[in-house]
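TA notes, week 10

Several of you asked for a full example with nothing omitted. So below is the full record: structure tokens for the whole chain, then the designed sequence directly under it. When grading your own attempts, check the secondary structure regions first.
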């Protein structure tokens, strides 16, 4: 497609996995869904992430305050700041011997220690900082800036049109639920984010653990190897 403008849209997740950054890389414009509802019970990937603890995928969770009613991600605040010290301690205990830990720990720990008024601001700061470090030249927006009242597919369509996009980059499993006709009627092409197989050596495990936070890759192979082997313009295909 000539003059294709690819838009990716996703909630601002907590130090997300490589597939999230692959979606950013494939997008011309990436919109953070920061004004959607935070789940009423349990945790989501907006406040938890998996890392390698003693060779197993384990969750680390940000404790958050819960209001009595509906709260959006950009209205969700931290229960306390104590979790940051514990999180850093866990990373030190499990990644200190990783090849690129010393080189990158200060950058990562600064992201973790960043002070923000809400969960959306905190996560967006980390994601955009990591994206720039990875040389991902995507333009970032927040859904809250558009003050939309619609929901579901219609909301996504309105966001895409608001930034003059003509292609929507959905998650790989999106084909199961996307309302194709709605996009077609608005002349929006549906694309799917399919990250190629990508693995590297991880400590204390023989079998590669998929889906871990991007910081697992950063500590094990570093930013330069990530840029050259996963976010390489010569391999870009959408």
């Amino acid at each position: 497609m000539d003059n294709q403008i690819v838009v990716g849209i996703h909630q601002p997740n907590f130090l997300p996995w490589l597939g999230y950054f692959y979606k950013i890389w494939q997008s011309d414009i990436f919109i953070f869904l920061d004004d959607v509802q935070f789940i009423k019970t349990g945790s989501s990937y907006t406040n938890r992430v998996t890392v390698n603890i003693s060779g197993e995928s384990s969750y680390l969770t940000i404790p958050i305050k819960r209001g009595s009613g509906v709260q959006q991600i950009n209205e969700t605040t931290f229960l306390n700041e104590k979790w940051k010290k514990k999180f850093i301690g866990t990373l030190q205990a499990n990644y200190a011997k990783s090849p690129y830990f010393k080189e990158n720990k200060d950058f990562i720990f600064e992201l973790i220690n960043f002070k923000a008024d809400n969960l959306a601001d905190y996560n967006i700061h980390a994601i955009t900082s990591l994206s720039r470090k990875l040389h991902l030249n995507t333009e970032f927006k927040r859904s809250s800036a558009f003050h939309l009242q619609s929901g579901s597919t219609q909301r996504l369509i309105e966001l895409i049109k608001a930034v003059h996009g003509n292609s929507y980059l959905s998650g790989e499993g999106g084909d199961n639920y996307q309302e194709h006709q709605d996009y077609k009627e608005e002349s929006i092409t549906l694309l799917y984010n399919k990250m190629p197989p990508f693995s590297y050596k991880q400590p204390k495990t023989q079998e590669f653990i998929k889906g871990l936070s991007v910081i697992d890759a950063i500590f094990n192979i570093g930013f330069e190897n990530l840029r050259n082997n996963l976010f390489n313009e010569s391999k870009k295909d959408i």
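The chain has seven helices and seven strands. Use that as a sanity check on your answer.
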